[in-house]
Amino acid sequence: MDGSKSKSEVARIKRQIELEYEAAQRLMYGFAAGAGKHEFITARMENMGRCHEQLVTLVGEQEATKAFAQALEQAGNEPTPIEKEAAQ
What we know:
Blueprint: H1 3-29, H2 35-59, H3 61-74, H4 81-87
Helix pairs in contact: 1-2, 1-3, 2-3
């Protein structure tokens, strides 16, 4: 894979990690309860693990771990569509 495609794919995977993490966080700290909640959070964490594996394939273990950490730091820092609309 050439450099620009690799960077684009890394960015896509990092965004997916952010979305998975945010979804798990919303449910964990939201009002939902029950076994479905646990299964949903587990699925999000498993998806994040697969994303990390994809990053390792693209950029190696060290860079993948760095990109993963960056994605987790970024998660939740971007305004939601509702927040964006309210700001206008």
